[in-house]
Amino acid sequence: MSTFGSEVIGTAILILLGDGVVAAVLLYQSKAQNAGWIVITFGWGMAVAMAIFAVGRFSGAHLNPAVTLGFAIEGTIKWSQVWGYWGGEFCGAFVGAILVWAAYSNHWEPTEDPGLKLAVFCTAPAIRNTVANVITEVIGTFVLMFGVLAIVGDNYAGNTGLAGLYIGLLVFAIGLSLGGPTGYAINPARDLGPRIIHAILPIPGKGPSDWGYAWIPVVGPLIGGALGALAFKAFYP
Questions:
Q1: Is 207 helix (H, G, I), strand (E, B) or coil?
Q2: Direct distance between the N- and C-terminal alpha carbons of the chain, in angstroms, rounded to an integer
């Protein structure tokens, strides 16, 4: 399977299960409505793990432009490969978001709050402060990138075949510990791709897609991913 195709499939699984758990918790008349933050963070962690298990053998399952950037800086992939990864990640995010919209087709109209509908697809800060929000995303993605490189570089994790699960648990921990301020996008494709789909799809009663904030979950994670890779190279030369 090609790198592009693998990343499309893997990122589609990631968004389907990740945005899917958000939809389950937030949308009205869902059986999981109001299940809470721990359900969302655990769902996202397992979404990452399942996506990695699905396509990791083909492309390494980056599923995240910030991770791809970090791997290029660290030297795992060539810079010429970055665009193929990024294209697959964004296309997969589009597909996953459309599938979530279809799966919860009966729940958009009963949900009157347009903010909840937007939250299914993308992140928003608890307190809107540009500098603080960027810093939060940088820190969260730094931890993600540093942790991913440490896990995949560990012989035990590789030999057991459980690296995907460990990375999923890492994302779970990031969500629990660092997700409160911004909703922990830590992935440009995860936020921007579904945000674009929210703007396009005919969702009953939806509001604006909050484009004024949209650059933060893109720029912050890219900076954090780059810094995480540089730090890993410095500490583990």
A1: coil
A2: 32
pLDDT tens for 189-199 read: 999 999 999 99
Residue 170 to residue 143: CA distance in whole angstroms: 9
Q: Which residue has the tokens 């939060």?
A: 136
pTM greater than 0.85: yes
Q: How do the domains of the chain map onto residue ranges?
A: 3-235
Contact between 27 and 111 under an 8 Å Cβ cutoff? The reply is yes
Output the six-digit token pair for 60.
Answer: 């390494």
Residue 134, CA distances (Å) to 34, 42, 140, 194, 222 in order:
28, 24, 10, 20, 11
Q: What is the pLDDT of residues 62-110, one digit of tens each?
A: 999 999 999 999 999 999 999 999 999 999 999 999 999 999 999 999 9
Which fold does the domain 3-235 belong to in CATH? Glycerol uptake facilitator protein (1.20.1080)
